[in-house]
C-alpha cells in the first residue's frame, strides 16, 4: 500500500505547498539552461576552451536521468517531507560549491551533486502536491507547477547573459541560496509528516538498468545532434540504449517491486500523456535551442536582441494561464488537446517563415502565439496525466512521469540539433555553416513532430478527465 500523509493539512497549506514546489521546480529547470550563456566567461575562469565545459550541462542532465527513477522509492521509504527538504539542502549546498569551483573536475563533481538534489526535488515535490490536492483542485495545482518547465528554458539564456555581463557567472549559482533556505523552512513547516511508510525492497537491478538506459539514450541523442559525430557511431549508441531500455522494461514488468511502477500506463489518460505527450514535449523542447541559434547565427542578431525576442514566447505562456482552466472546463481535455495541439504545430511552422528581413513586430507576434498554444497544451497534458490515477498509485506515476518528461525534454534539444543536421544535408552544405533556410526546415520538422503527437490524443474518450476539468458538470442545467 502506498504511503499517505495522515497529518492534518493547515488551512491554505495546499496552495503554499504548490507554490513552494513550483519555485523548487523553477530552480531545477533554470539551472539546466541558464549556464549556457555563461560558458565563455566560465572557460576563462578555468583557463580552458568553452566547448570543453559542455560537460557541465550534460553531467547535470544525465544525473537527473539516472536518479529520478529511485525518487519514488526514497520518498516512500523516508517520507516526502524529509526527502524534499533534504533534496533542497543538497541542491542549495551544491549550488554554493558550483559557484566556488576553480576547475573543470571540481565543477563537474558539484554539478553531479546538484543533479542528485534536483532528481529528488522535482518528482518528490510533485508527489507532495498530488497527495494534498483533491481531484477538483488538481487542474489549478498542475497549472501552477508546470509553468517552470515552460518559463525556465525561455528566460534562462537571457537571464544568464545579464548576470554574466554585469556581475559574474558565480552569481548564477549563489542566487539559489536564499531561495533554497526559504524553501527548506517552508517545506518543514507546511509538509505534514508521513505517519505510514512503505518498506518495499529496493530494486537494485532495475535501478542499474534504468540508469544505463537513460544515460545511453540521452548520450546517443546528443551524439546524433553533434555535427562532429558520425551517424554510425551515434546510431550504435542509440541501438545500445534501445536494447538496454527493452531489458529494463522486461525487468520492471516481471519484478514484484520495481524501482519504477509501470502499472499507471494501463490508465488511458496517463498513457496518452506519456506517449503522445512525450512527442509534444520533444517538439517544444527543441524551440529554446533553435530560436537563439536562428536569431544569432541565421539573422545576425547579438545575444541581447535574441534574448529580448525570446521573451515574447514567455509573455504568451503567462498570458494564456488566465484562460487555460476555463477552456478545459468548457471544451474538455480531448477537444482542447486535439485543436490546440494542431494550433501549436501550426505556430511552429509559422516560425519557419521568419527571415532576417521580417519586421520585429511580426517576429514578436509569431513567438507570442506559439507561447499561447504551448502553454495550453503543456498544462492540459500534465493535468490529464494524473486525472484518473488513484492515490495509491500516485508515487509510482509521479516517478514515471518525471523520468519520461525529463528524458523527452532532453531529447527535444537533440531533436532540434538533428533537424539542423538534416536541413544542412538537404541544402547540400556542412552542418557548421548554417543558413536561415536551414532553420526554416528545422522548424518545419519540429512542427511535424508536434503534429504527430496529436494522433495519440484521438484515442481518448470525449469525457476523459471530466471529474477534474468539470467539463460535463458545466454543461448540465443548474
UniProtKB/TrEMBL annotation:
Keywords assigned by UniProt, alphabetized: Cell membrane, Membrane, Transmembrane, Transmembrane helix, Transport
Domain Major facilitator superfamily (MFS) profile: 17-465
GO CC list: plasma membrane
Record keyword Protease present: no
Source organism superkingdom: Bacteria
InterPro entries assigned to the protein according to its UniProt record, in alphabetical order: EmrB-like, MFS, MFS_dom, MFS_trans_sf
Pfam families: MFS_1
Main localization, broad class: membrane
PANTHER family membership: BLR6921 PROTEIN (PTHR42718:SF46), MAJOR FACILITATOR SUPERFAMILY MULTIDRUG TRANSPORTER MFSC (PTHR42718)
Name of the protein: Putative transport protein HsrA
Taxonomy of the source species: Bacteria, Pseudomonadati, Pseudomonadota, Betaproteobacteria, Burkholderiales
Amino acid at each position: 500500500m502506498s504511503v499517505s500523509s495522515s497529518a492534518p493539512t493547515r488551512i491554505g497549506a495546499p496552495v503554499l505547498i504548490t507554490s513552494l514546489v513550483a519555485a523548487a521546480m523553477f530552480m531545477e529547470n533554470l539551472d539546466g539552461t541558464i549556464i549556457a550563456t555563461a560558458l565563455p566567461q566560465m572557460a576563462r575562469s578555468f583557463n580552458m576552451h568553452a566547448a570543453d565545459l559542455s560537460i557541465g550541462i550534460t553531467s547535470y542532465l544525465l544525473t537527473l536521468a539516472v536518479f529520478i527513477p529511485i525518487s519514488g522509492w526514497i520518498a516512500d521509504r523516508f517520507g516526502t517531507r524529509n526527502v524534499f527538504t533534504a533534496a533542497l539542502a543538497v541542491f542549495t549546498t551544491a549550488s554554493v560549491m558550483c559557484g566556488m569551483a576553480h576547475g573543470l573536475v571540481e565543477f563537474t563533481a558539484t554539478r553531479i551533486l546538484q543533479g542528485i538534489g534536483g532528481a529528488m526535488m522535482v518528482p518528490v515535490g510533485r508527489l507532495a502536491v498530488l497527495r494534498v490536492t483533491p481531484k477538483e483542485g488538481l487542474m489549478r495545482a498542475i497549472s501552477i507547477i508546470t509553468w517552470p518547465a515552460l518559463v525556465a528554458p525561455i528566460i534562462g539564456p537571457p537571464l544568464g547573459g545579464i548576470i554574466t555581463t554585469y556581475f559574474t557567472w558565480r552569481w548564477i549559482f549563489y542566487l539559489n541560496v536564499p531561495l533554497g533556505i526559504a524553501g527548506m523552512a517552508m517545506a518543514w513547516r507546511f509538509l505534514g509528516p508521513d505517519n505510514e511508510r512503505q518498506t518495499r525492497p529496493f530494486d537494485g537491478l532495475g535501478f542499474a538498468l534504468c540508469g544505463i538506459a537513460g544515460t545511453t539514450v540521452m548520450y546517443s541523442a546528443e551524439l546524433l545532434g553533434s555535427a562532429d559525430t558520425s551517424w554510425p557511431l551515434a546510431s550504435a549508441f542509440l541501438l545500445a540504449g534501445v536494447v538496454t531500455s527493452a531489458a529494463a522494461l522486461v525487468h520492471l514488468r516481471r519484478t514484484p517491486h520495481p524501482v519504477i511502477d509501470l502499472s499507471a500506463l494501463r490508465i488511458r489518460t496517463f498513457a496518452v500523456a506519456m506517449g503522445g505527450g512525450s512527442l509534444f514535449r520533444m517538439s517544444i523542447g527543441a524551440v529554446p535551442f533553435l530560436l537563439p541559434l536562428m536569431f544569432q547565427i541565421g539573422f545576425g542578431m547579438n545575444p541581447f536582441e535574441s534574448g529580448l525576442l525570446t521573451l515574447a514566447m514567455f509573455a504568451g505562456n503567462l498570458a494564456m494561464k488566465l484562460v487555460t482552466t476555463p477552456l478545459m472546463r468548457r471544451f474538455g481535455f480531448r477537444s482542447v488537446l486535439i485543436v490546440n495541439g494542431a494550433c501549436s504545430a501550426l505556430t511552429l511552422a509559422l516560425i519557419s517563415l521568419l527571415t532576417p528581413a521580417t519586421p520585429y513586430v511580426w517576429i514578436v507576434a509569431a513567438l507570442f502565439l506559439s507561447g499561447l498554444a504551448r502553454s495550453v497544451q503543456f498544462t492540459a497534458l500534465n493535468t490529464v496525466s494524473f486525472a484518473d490515477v488513484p492515490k495509491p498509485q500516485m508515487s509510482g506515476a509521479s516517478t514515471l512521469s518525471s523520468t519520461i518528461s525529463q528524458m523527452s525534454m532532453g531529447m527535444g534539444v537533440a531533436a532540434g540539433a538533428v533537424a539542423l543536421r538534416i536541413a544542412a544535408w538537404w541544402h547540400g552544405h556542412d552542418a557548421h555553416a548554417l543558413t536561415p533556410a536551414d532553420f526554416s526546415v528545422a522548424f518545419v520538422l519540429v512542427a511535424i513532430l508536434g503534429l504527430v503527437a496529436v494522433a495519440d490524443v484521438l484515442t481518448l474518450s470525449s469525457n476523459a478527465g471530466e471529474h477534474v476539468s468539470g467539463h460535463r458538470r458545466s454543461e448540465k442545467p443548474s
